[in-house]
Automatic annotation (TrEMBL):
PANTHER family: GAF DOMAIN-CONTAINING PROTEIN (PTHR43102:SF2), SLR1143 PROTEIN (PTHR43102). SUPFAM superfamilies: GAF domain-like, PP2C-like. It comes from Microbacterium gallinarum. Residues 179-380 form the PPM-type phosphatase domain. InterPro entries: GAF, GAF-like_dom_sf, PPM-type-like_dom_sf, PPM-type_phosphatase-like_dom. This is SpoIIE family protein phosphatase. It comes from the Bacteria. SMART domains: GAF (SM00065), PP2C_SIG (SM00331).
């Protein structure tokens, strides 16, 4: 039987109501919108008399009445709720969110659980037209909700893992004539869930940045595994290398709601040809010598979600004076919120890559960034 007082105590203990936006949670809402092609997405938390949105797209605000909330029904049921056409559904046809703004027709939500098992909110996708979901899409919604749940509950414990942390430190910077390489990694706590790596093989520079959902020793260990796997057999094609990491994660941590976003890239040092595989990361760019940004976008799913993604590389090119930049989402927390790309451009053009990544580390420490901040820059000089 649903116990609303127990739910309320659980959400208050979590301390997530009325907290500032979280870049990691916002990433999930953006990914859900892309994957399901819906106009509205929300991470909704149920309070006593309101539904409060930790993250939302298309709903126009962070708060609404609890009465009549689809998400309240989902939380009480404790399972995935899919409403294909609310206007013809006996439970929801007269709902104020159906007959009035935003005139919902489609709703699909999955509950979020506190460490004690109490359901306190949902990840939901919504539309103003009827829709259906197949079995794979429902599984995907559940996986994304598990990602959000782990971010909000943050139940990872911090162990004495100094040896693991050392394994995350990248090997010596490669000596690459004609290119300037720089990187920095600043942990939010004692251990990092970010990892970067770079090495040269057969005239090509491979550059990796991976970001494990979560914090603490668990995230650090998985990050070390990802780095080690990508280092094995360095001549493998990019797509094969990433697929094998995914297989490793599925075998080792499948079903644990731990996911990894990553960009694995390769630069032909002679020509500047750039190939990359983006697994749900979406934070890789080329800054052209004339100041233009080229976003190396991808809608690939994160690693460890249990789906057979085809990891085909995309391509770009580095001309002389261009810089390839990849970062973890922690960098977004320390940039000028009104002009983040301009901020990066000013730093990169006023300082060399080494100075730019040092500035990122300085900002991370000065602002006590809530997440790991990792930045890798590769500039083609000739």
């Amino acid at each position: 039987m649903f116990d609303d007082e127990k739910r309320q105590r659980a959400i208050e203990k979590l301390g997530v109501l009325d907290t500032p936006p979280d870049a990691r949670v916002d990433r999930v809402t953006r990914l859900a919108q892309e994957l399901f092609d819906v106009p509205m997405v929300s991470v909704t938390l149920i309070d006593r008399d309101r539904q409060w949105r930790k993250s939302q797209i298309g709903l126009g605000g962070n708060e609404a009445p609890r009465e009549g909330a689809f998400c309240d029904v989902t939380v009480r049921a404790g399972d995935t709720l899919v409403v294909e056409d609310a206007s013809t559904d006996a439970t929801f046809a007269d709902n104020p969110f159906v007959v009035g703004d935003p005139h919902l027709r489609f709703y699909a939500g999955h509950p979020l659980a506190a460490p004690g098992g109490e359901h306190f909110g949902t990840l939901c996708i919504l539309d103003t037209r009827p829709r259906t979901l197949d079995g794979r899409q429902i599984d995907l919604l559940r996986e994304l909700a598990g990602w959000v749940q782990a971010e909000l509950t943050d139940v990872h414990e911090l162990d004495d893992a100094s040896l693991v942390q050392q394994s995350l430190m990248s090997a010596r910077r490669p000596d690459v004539p004609g290119y300037t390489l720089a990187a920095s990694a600043t942990p939010a706590g004692q251990l990092m869930g970010d990892v970067y790596d770079w090495y040269v093989h057969d005239g090509r520079l491979r550059v990796t940045l991976a970001d494990v959902m979560g914090k603490g020793a668990g995230a650090a260990i998985i990050a070390a595994e990802v780095r080690a796997s990508l280092r094995t057999a360095p001549g493998r094609p990019l797509g094969h290398a990433v697929s094998e990491v995914e297989k490793m994660l599925e075998e080792d941590i499948g079903g644990s709601n731990i996911f990894v976003t990553a960009v694995h890239a390769e630069i032909d040092l002679a020509t500047g040809a750039l190939s990359f595989v983006d697994a749900g990361h979406g934070l890789a760019f080329v800054l052209r010598a004339d100041g233009r940004w080229e976003f190396l976008e991808s809608t690939g799913l994160p690693l460890g979600m249990g789906f057979d993604e085809v990891r085909d590389p995309a391509r770009a090119h580095l001309d002389v004076g261009d810089s390839y930049l990849v970062c973890s989402d922690g960098l977004l927390d320390v940039l000028d919120p009104d002009d983040p790309y301009g901020h990066v451009y000013r730093v990169l053009t006023s300082l060399d890559p080494e100075g730019a990544v040092a500035e990122a580390a300085r900002l991370a420490k000065a602002t006590r960034a809530p997440d790991d901040v990792t930045v890798v820059v590769v500039r083609r000089d000739r």
